[in-house]
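Page 42, continued from yesterday. The earlier attempt failed because a stray header line got pasted into the input along with the sequence. Redoing it now with the clean sequence only.
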Amino acid sequence: MLRSGPASSLARSAFRLTTSRSSRNRKTSNLASQTSKLLSPHIQGNIRSASLALTAYRPLSTSLQRHATTTAASPYDKVDKKHEQQVAKDELEPHPEEVGPTSSVHQVFHEKGVPEEEQDVDMLAGVYSDLKVIKDTFALNEVPREALFIGMAGVLPYLATSLSTVYLAWDINHAALDGQGFLLSGETAELLLHIIEPLQMGYGAVIISFLGAIHWGLEWAKFGGTHGYRRYAIGVVAPAVAWPTLVLPVEYALIAQFSAFCFLYFADARAVVRGWAPPWYATYRFVLTFIVGASIVLSLIGRGQIADKISRLPSPADRLKALRESQVAQLEEEERERRARVVAEEEEEEEEEDED
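This time it went through. Structure tokens are written below.
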């Protein structure tokens, strides 16, 4: 049947078509191999990726052949059967001590099961850090030398009166227990204590007034601009709070002055933040306020130890009260004398009438 004319001609044409395609493919592959030798590796990679992208339109054999020739075989693709057999024979050992809340967490800085190196921890690192903070806080490198020296000299009288109060309180206690003081008698120590009290209170009022007046000077110098009543108010409030404390009892006066010093430090720190004062002024004021505040606390502690062993020095308020009472008593005495004179005059008049 295939030997007939039409069938034989159809078979010959199909054979020629197949032969011509195969020869054309061989020529194309030879030309491509020669061209790839002349191209750079980068261009070869682009052509190779493009050829792989077109494998869907070619026969399966061509695609597999190109993948096998362009992809390097990985050594990890080979299976180590001996090792697998050895692992299969090993038995899993239980380790319950390794099971915990973090046993399933991958270690980042060290391997699991590997002993960690013991680190040398400095036990005084925290103390050194705190000391450094204190040193930086009290650093006065930017403060002008004149202001620093005069300011430190200004707090010495306050500190001296506080230390004297503490010593005199101790001497009074020593005299109360042993019958005689260490250096001074109990009466002498009490007398000196009553002299020191108004000195400390008066000096504190002067310092508070001076700290308020500094803001008037900064306003007149136009440091940070002019701010008017807001800056002047600080200089007015300071003496208005300081001087009335002199009429209070000693303990209340010291507490009131301590509050005034803290308020002024807060006002000065805010002034530095706003640009109304030099940048170093806040640290400078903190150091001075710390010394004054510690002195006031020492004085209060010393007086608290002898509150029941000394007589309280009359305060200005007590003196005003005593003056008022004396005036009332004097007026009453004058009124009694006047009435007595009136009664005597009336009696004399009655006697004269009786004689007549």
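Notes: Residues 316-355 form the longest helix (40 residues).
Reminder to self: strip header lines before submitting.
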